[in-house]
């Protein structure tokens, strides 16, 4: 296996030719049909959200596919009612910083698991994985008390601190690193590289796909976080956009129009991040796994 | 000469490899210990007390009362059964279908591949609460589009969220709808990490497309697939929380509640720290034991490109 | 006088001492900031707008007092719990009535009799509905003044009534009439006959208490030690609801589903708090004729609804802050305060005298007929009994789970309710 893996680069060109001719006509049609159905299933509710954001309150539950009495009123109402610009910026900072920091701590920790066998390593690994199982409400108030003691209430830093590391990042990266061909790492070590260099010059560039997809996932999960920002925010200006969206669900009933408008606006930055980062996921496939 | 120069480097490497892993682990470990484990340990202690969290209020020792009351909840066993249903229902949506999508789209031309993957991913971008609301509208028995279509074909409208037999599958469907993009992304990345020369080697040996998938891709993806399976088993109940909370509240008649929601309802959301802590300990130990077993299995059955 | 009675007299005086010494400062003579935990502020809508307006007006009138509004979720008080645990000042809270007992025994809500001068209280209470004043009373003391509260209203769709051959000008007044009307609507128009906000996770037990009370029963005994929702009167009430369900006209819709169904014109009658009036009116605009009536009665028995909503409670122990909070409380529960709350948010005024006064609500009430049933029920309003003890939420959930199971789940009503009562009784303090 290993010698084969090293000996095939010369055959890169025939791959593309072979792949195109490998596709049989029926497979493509059936596959595409299924994918189209799946796409409709995935997209339709999102379309409905956007369409509803243009509907007035007395037409919110109509079933026409296209809003009959569309207007931008909901958007102006949403922008007037909540400081959505500030909230978007807060959420962007929160998500971006959390993503970068979680990736950093995750890469370092995953390297530790992948590179070394050390006493208690299995225990620590399981311990990391188990943090995922801890329900948030349990740690919510103790974390709040800690943040209050630090004097950081109503500060973006307080949002970020508990999110500095995540089990998902560590586990996924550890798994990807463990699956990385050992001989490449050995080759680098033969060249005299220290661990730090191996990590950042050999492993990370070649795991770009995993890291990019992890970045997308972490960004989205922090973007959609609700309970912790809810507990921390004392003013609307300092809170995140999820709080803003749910502010339209009141004890006097829900204002769906502005809610859908705010939600559509809140989805746009995430969509952009996804489009930018997923190119990294795809491009990593272009490189063969060998430097 | 060789011996003299060989000894010092080995010594250096040995001491370095003793503390080096801990150094790399420290930022993550410190975070996890301070923000998650320390409160959890505190929760273990508090689960034996009745307290309202205020520093000046007395902590009343109640022994195993909190645990007994939780296990005595009428819906406890129903919630456990439902949790099994959630996991079984989510596995196809969160693992199998994304696997098929990741493999199928891998071979498509770049444009349609990216478009399909982006579309599958879009549900993840929407705030969960909003997604729940939109789905509720689409599935409403009166004005929802889904039932309009069903009525148009001549069938009785389905009460997707108020029929106890159907509701849990509806929630599973919505949770899965949201999650597909997550797993597809992870599997696509893992698929991309597979060395293309391995695929080429198999093709050179005359394997058909399906055989290539079966014999080369799937085994190499197995560790990721198993990882996603374990994640679904451990977190499936948590992932559906928002949808249960917004759409059904655990009903109708407890048909959509699961162990996580039930313990949230009677524990975390109730101001009584004792109940909440006991609930957390039960969840942690229960799923922890499950995780331990599952991780062992992964270790045994996964396959690396080595 | 002999020694014994002298000593007794002295003892009585010392014991009465703290009760007589109202603790708040006579005035706010230095700048002070008080925190006001308010759930309307956590929303973006009429509730938040009106609250901010009132707070700004108050601060303009009282330059020494700064009010820091802190939003919190009315579904659970974890923000209050967390802030108190962190040592942050929690001075005044808009407390949901079902949390009142917990607030008194855990969050440090103060009885007005203990902190405010009696004459000021009496002067302020003049003009308030006597029933309304009782809503915030617990163990004989006034802990809260009803602030944003309302009664259960039977909203109905006059267009569907007409289509079903019913007279929209004489809505059903008894549960039997509701059943007949609902059946007619279901048969003639195919739409849902009846929906209610009785069950459901965010409903707690406020509507249920009113239904049981209207049948002569009660959910908890007057001495607040025994639960009674498994007794015959309560079981009868639940059986009546079960009968509606068995007749096919009362479905187990979730709260949002029911409200949106009504707003979309798909439900004939909807029993819910008048607070949702705004949403229903917006949905009905140019679509259908929305009307309102009082809660149905059990035959000849009088209707005995209770309120929903919240009261204002003072928690601070600092004398100056107590005075500041009391001034804010007086402002928010003044004639002007209730005028804003009623006309801009849609809740009930605790002061019945402003209803006919053209300077306050007179004209508004005339142009908003939907509020009439709400005002009528204010005259017979009874308090929403908060459950006692640290497990109060679990008690409510146990009770309401049993109600849902009995009405919609086909379970035996008497056995299920009795069972739940026994389980919940074990959770009482």
From TrEMBL, chain B:
UniProt signal peptide: none
GO annotations of cellular component type: plasma membrane
GO biological process: transmembrane transport
Keywords noted in UniProt: Cell membrane, Membrane, Transmembrane, Transmembrane helix, Transport
CDD domains in alphabetical order: TM_PBP2
TM region positions: 21-38, 83-104, 116-138, 166-190, 218-241, 273-298
Membrane topology term: Multi-pass membrane protein
Pfam families from the UniProt entry: BPD_transp_1
Protein name: Sugar ABC transporter permease
Organism whose genome encodes this protein: Paradevosia tibetensis
